[in-house]
């Protein structure tokens, strides 16, 4: 294994495609960061993050959002991207030099759109167009909702590039889009976001806006809703629950707008309870119930999941646990795992014999192995025999960058509880 890894590194250094032998000769004309000796290995393996501790020196007076070239201690060009004065100092957007940012963004959008054209969407008019590092655009999310693009910058650099990105979107999509909405205020650093406003960058369209996902109707409100308005990443996993739902009693916790609930109901579930702590979320659930013509077998409840699982006397054929990220940083990982174990342990006790648990984590710092081991501990404490039927991840319009394992953020398991 070590020999093969060494061969791979040697190939990357010799292969001209990697651009690692291009000498950086115009330092005086470009903003730059230069890495310490030995700190260029992750970049040569195409990982897009440069940590501040790896930097030897940098241009004077760098500002958050500045484009910088990343160079090795031997003055080799390694990549170019956005600077930020933080632990992740640079997020690389290209491992090749960029001659024209306008052309660069057009090519990026076209490349991302090509992937979405080959994904077999079935009766679906909503998808993620740009998925951050997964599409080589760290700090940028763009979702497509039946003719409307919702733009969300998570870095200052992406927000400062907004106009060029919008022009590229217009050029690539043309009349396919009727509006573009910027919803970046909530995701940008607070000191910068204080001067930002969400709003339409192109066109204008009333909300809520109806979309279809595998033939199921949903009402999306990108102005007041969570994230960009909908959780598109669970599309395939919602479709999976429909295969098991017929005639079953189901509890859908952390339900938000009821995605799993309506797939299950349309597949013939006997009873579904949609539970969320947010009254606004339950309002969305009720809207979606009307959109899908659901007249019986469904109850929407405002409530916290943990107390509900503790206090309910009802057992279910299927329980869905799809909580928000319990861990947003390495420092909160241990506490998050304790939270995941507690809630999964309670759920396992409330599942009927031969029932199913659909359980998820969207915490980036919780790896699949950590999540699996947590489920083992929860199963032992619950005292149930358990089998793994499916391992789940995000839908393919949320691609995982092979060289950036952190982009594999959504972990899920379908467990049979005996």
Global mean pLDDT: 93
Radius of gyration: 23 Å
Principal-axis shape = globular
Q: What is the count of β-strands?
A: 20
Measured between the Cα atoms of the first and last residue, the distance is 40 Å
Largest sheet: 7 strands, mixed
Strand order of the largest sheet: 16-15-14-17-18-20-19
Uncertain stretches of 5 or more adjacent residues: 1-28
Count, helices: 12
Oligomeric status: single chain
Q: Structural class of the secondary elements?
A: alpha/beta
Q: Summarize the amount of helix as a percent range.
A: 25-40%
Describe what this molecule looks like in 3D.
By secondary structure, the chain is an alpha/beta fold. Helix content is 30%, strand content 27%. It is built from 12 helices and 20 strands. It has a 7-stranded mixed beta sheet, sandwiched between helices. Strands 2-6-5-4-1-3 form a 6-stranded mixed beta sheet. Strand 15 (271-276), helix 9 (279-291) and strand 16 form a beta-alpha-beta unit. It is globular, with a radius of gyration of 23 Å. Mean pLDDT is 93; it is low at 1-28.
What is the fold's blueprint, element by element?
Layout: H1 2-14, E1 32-35, H2 41-44, E2 49-51, E3 55-58, E4 67-71, E5 77-83, E6 88-94, H3 101-118, E7 126-131, E8 140-145, E9 148-153, H4 156-160, H5 162-173, E10 179-182, H6 190-193, E11 199-202, E12 209-213, E13 216-220, H7 235-242, E14 249-253, H8 259-266, E15 271-276, H9 279-291, E16 298-302, H10 305-311, E17 316-321, H11 333-349, E18 351-361, H12 368-382, E19 386-392, E20 411-417
Descriptive key words:
alpha/beta; 12 helices; 27% strand; 6-stranded mixed β-sheet; 418 residues
């Amino acid at each position: 294994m070590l020999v093969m890894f060494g061969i791979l590194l040697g190939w990357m250094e010799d292969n001209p495609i990697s651009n690692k032998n291009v000498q950086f000769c115009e330092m005086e004309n470009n903003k730059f960061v230069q890495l310490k000796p030995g700190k260029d290995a992750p970049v040569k393996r195409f990982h897009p993050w440069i940590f501040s501790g790896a930097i030897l020196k940098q241009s004077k007076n760098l500002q958050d959002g500045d484009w910088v070239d990343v160079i090795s201690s031997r003055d080799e060009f390694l990549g170019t991207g956005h600077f930020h004065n933080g632990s992740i100092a640079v997020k690389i957007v290209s491992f090749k030099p960029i001659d024209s940012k306008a052309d660069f963004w057009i090519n990026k959008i076209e490349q991302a759109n090509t992937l979405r054209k080959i994904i077999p969407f079935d009766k679906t008019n909503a998808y993620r167009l740009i998925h951050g590092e997964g599409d080589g655009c760290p700090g940028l999310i763009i979702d497509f909702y039946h003719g409307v693009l919702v733009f969300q910058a998570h870095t200052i650099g992406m927000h400062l590039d907004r106009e060029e990105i919008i022009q590229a979107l217009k050029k690539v999509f043309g009349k396919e889009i009727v509006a573009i909405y910027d919803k970046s205020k909530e995701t940008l650093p607070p000191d910068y976001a204080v001067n930002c406003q969400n709003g339409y960058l192109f066109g204008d369209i009333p909300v809520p806006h109806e979309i279809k996902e595998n033939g199921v109707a949903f009402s999306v409100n990108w102005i007041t809703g969570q994230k960009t308005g909908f959780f598109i990443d669970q599309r395939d996993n919602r479709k999976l629950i429909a295969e098991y739902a017929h005639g079953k009693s189901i509890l859908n916790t952390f339900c938000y707008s009821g995605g799993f609930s309506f797939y299950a109901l349309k597949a013939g579930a006997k009873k579904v309870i949609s539970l969320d702590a947010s009254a606004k979320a339950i309002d969305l659930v009720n809207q979606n119930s009307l959109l899908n013509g659901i007249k019986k077998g469904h109850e929407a409840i405002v409530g916290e999941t943990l107390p509900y699982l503790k206090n309910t006397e009802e057992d279910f054929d299927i329980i869905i646990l799809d909580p928000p990220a319990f861990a947003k940083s390495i420092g909160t990982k241990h506490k998050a795992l304790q939270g995941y174990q507690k809630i999964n342990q309670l759920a396992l006790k409330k599942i009927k014999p031969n029932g199913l648990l659909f359980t998820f984590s969207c915490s980036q710092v919780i790896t699949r192995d950590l999540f699996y081991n947590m489920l083992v501990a929860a199963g032992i404490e619950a005292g149930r025999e358990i089998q793994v039927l499916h391992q789940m991840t995000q839908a393919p319009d949320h691609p995982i960058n092979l060289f950036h394992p952190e982009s594999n953020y959504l972990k899920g398991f379908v467990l049979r509880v005996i």
